[in-house]
Amino acid sequence: MRYFVTGGAGYVGAHACKALAGAGHEVVVFDNLSTGHREAVKWGDLVVGDLLDRECIKRAIEDTRPDGVLHFAALAYVGESVHRPDLYYRTNIAGTQNLLDAMRLADVTRIVVSSTCATYGTPAEMPISETTPQVPVNPYGRTKLVMETMLRDYCSAFGFGAIALRYFNAAGADTAGEIGEDHTPETHLIPLVLQAAAGLLPNVKIFGNDYPTADGTAVRDYVHVTDLADAHVKALDICASGHFKAFNLGAGIGTSVMDICMAAERVTGQKIYIEMVPCRAGDPPILYADPALAATELGWTPRQSDLDTILATAWAWMQSAHPGAGKGRRTDHADSQAEHMN
Ligand SMILES: NC(=O)c1ccc[n+]([C@@H]2O[C@H](COP(=O)([O-])OP(=O)(O)OC[C@H]3O[C@@H](n4cnc5c(N)ncnc54)[C@H](O)[C@@H]3O)[C@@H](O)[C@H]2O)c1
């Protein structure tokens, strides 16, 4: 099969391209390289283009004639979405609609999209299942919920078969070290902790140690990016015309910020300096998934999502990207602003 991958030069998208190629599929990546990297496109052709350019996306789909689409391209910084909701609504909603309309014109109806646990907001009950009410608390989460709603409507009206995969916190790197996480600015906790271990940051800021959790720090669900990639290959197989379906992709385990810091010290053999700062408004104390539906209906279980594998693969990637990491420490004060929800 030939698959069209928007955002395939980005973190999760590139790992999915590797999984698709490994399953024997042909891949065409469509990406504007705004946060992605040309070097990460190793398993297929790259079309440099923007989802907001309707003609460009229409032409790329027509030329590719894919059997289906994986849609990763989006803006995905929670904090930025609060200050620039205009950009988020445009890319995540208008951009997605341009893609769906280009697919319609070319008679392509199978699609798997990246959604997020941020569509659930701050639910009172854990774990979070697919029936937990979706009440997002920031513009990023709201754009992803609108995207899901739009897909449902395209499924009933136009016979699309769509799967939304609601990731919890993507983490880790390709086990063979070919690709990894490279965001600028980096807001994800694990790379920031590892940058502190490597001496690229003086410390890690922990936002709040008085949450109602075992050690007082926020608890999240970390899922290995390779496991996420595998779920996409499986999801493409079960897209059924006229049906929309959503799955939570998480390890089903709550891990605290302090657990991450301690495990990172063990895995890297480096001391990690911590700065405690007050918690941020709207940051929920605990979020973790119930991944049971993905297990029964998708046949997906996370295989690499134990904390040590996540940290070891991310550390190996960081060391290859920054030779000498961990051998000397910076002493100036760079900032490390971790976002805990994706
Ligand atoms: N990383 C996580 O923990 C996480 C968690 C939940 C959901 N998600 C979702 O997964 C998807 C991928 O996330 P990621 O961490 O790999 O992000 P990323 O920024 O690494 O990848 C996004 C890719 O989309 C491209 N892109 C952005 N706007 C575009 C446009 N208008 N036209 C064409 N290409 C465009 C970027 O250049 C980049 O390559 C996103 O939809 C994100 O919302 C990520």
Helix and strand topology:
Layout: E1 2-6, H1 11-22, E2 26-31, E3 45-48, H2 54-64, E4 68-71, H3 78-83, H4 85-105, E5 110-116, H5 139-158, E6 161-167, E7 169-171, H6 189-197, E8 204-207, E9 219-220, E10 222-224, H7 225-238, E11 244-249, E12 255-256, H8 257-268, E13 274-277, H9 292-298, H10 307-321
Parallel strand pairs: 1-2, 1-4, 2-3, 4-5, 5-6, 6-11, 7-10, 8-13
Antiparallel strand pairs: 9-12
What would your notes on this structure say?
- By secondary structure, this protein is an alpha/beta fold.
- The protein folds into two domains: 197 residues, Rossmann fold (3-Layer(aba) Sandwich); 111 residues, UDP-galactose 4-epimerase, domain 1, CATH 3.90.25.10.
- The protein has a seven-stranded parallel beta sheet, with helices on both faces. The chain has a two-stranded parallel ribbon with strand order 7-10. Strands 8-13 form a two-stranded parallel ribbon.
- Helix 1 links the parallel strand 1 and strand 2.
- Helix 2 runs parallel beside helix 4.
- The longest helix has 21 residues.
- The relative contact order is 0.15.
- The structure holds nicotinamide-adenine-dinucleotide.
How many discrete domains?
Answer: 2
Q: Tell me the Rg in angstroms.
A: 19 Å
- Largest sheet data: 7 strands, parallel
- List all distinct small molecules, including ions and cofactors, that are bound in this structure: nicotinamide-adenine-dinucleotide
Which architecture name of the largest domain does CATH use? 3-Layer(aba) Sandwich
CATH class of the largest domain: Alpha Beta
The total count of strands amounts to 13
Q: What is the 3D form?
A: globular
SSE topology string: EHEEHEHHEHEEHEEEHEEHEHH
Estimate the helix proportion, in percent. Answer: 25-40%
Q: Based on helices, strands and strand pairing, what is the structural class?
A: alpha/beta
Note the beta-strand portion.
Answer: 15-25%
Low-confidence region ranges: 329-337
